[in-house]
Design goal:
By secondary structure, the protein is α+β, with helices and mostly antiparallel strands. It has two domains: 93 residues, Ribosomal Protein L25, Chain P; 83 residues, Ribosomal protein L25, C-terminal domain (RNA Polymerase Alpha Subunit, Chain A, domain 2), CATH 2.170.120.20. Helix content is 24%, strand content 39%. It has a six-stranded mixed beta barrel. It is elongated and about 95 Å long.
């Protein structure tokens, strides 16, 4: 059951003018598309949309769209924000048919950094993908992809094939085992090692010069 309900209104005007009109009326304009129906211009009251947005369970999750007595499960596929105020200015909703499979980006999170030998040795986690597009049932979208760093060694490469995904969920890129992250020697550690080598070389030079002078 969807946790968020968006009460929408149908917009008579479309395009930039219609969107601006909705914002002036205290609404956030959006578009509903996908499935068998035609695209529909909609809007949601600004305060209601903002409240749903900051639950953290709007974008990329299954929610319920309500228009009067009608309801429709949808996925919030995209939200656009004002470049200065960072407030929502437009959103896209995708219709979801019962039993359908969708593609959606899911965030990648890493856990147990304190139990990672590579990080304890001064290594760094180089994240290649912060999210991964998955093909999954619309009513079973994973909240996140979790990578356990326990026991990971310096030089390890973490690939999607190592991650256990829920039943029925697969990466949309199916033809290769792509990289999520690598564990490398950090730039700071490399710099320290270079400085130490330089100091050692300088010490050897001074010692050699001192020995040469004593022989003279």
């Amino acid at each position: 059951m969807a946790e968020i309900v968006l009460n929408v209104e149908i917009r008579d005007r479309t395009g930039t003018g219609g969107a601006r009109e909705s914002r002036r009326a205290g609404m956030v304009p959006g578009i509903l598309y996908g499935g068998a129906g035609a695209p529909v211009a909609i809007s949601v009251k600004w305060n209601e949309f903002r409240k749903s947005l900051y639950t953290g369970k709007l974008l990329g999750h299954l929610v319920t769209l309500k228009y009067g007595d009608e309801s429709q499960p949808v996925i919030a596929k995209d939200i656009q924000f004002h470049p200065v105020t960072d407030e929502p200015v437009h959103f896209d909703l995708l219709r979801v048919e019962k039993g359908s499979t969708i593609r959606i980006a899911v965030p990648v999170h890493f856990k147990n950094q304190d139990d990672c030998p590579a990080l304890k040795q001064g290594g760094s986690l180089e994240v290649v993908r912060h999210d991964v597009e998955l093909s999954c049932p619309a009513d079973a979208i994973p909240e996140e992809i979790v990578v356990d760093l326990t026991g990971r060694q310096m030089g390890d490469t973490i690939r999607i094939g190592e991650i256990e995904l829920p039943k029925g969920v697969t990466p949309s890129i199916a033809d290769r085992d792509f990289v999520l992250a690598t564990l490398k020697v950090s730039s700071a550690a490399m710099s320290e090692a270079a400085d130490a080598a330089s100091d050692a070389a300088e010490g050897d030079t001074v010692e050699a010069e001192a020995e040469a002078e004593s022989e003279d």
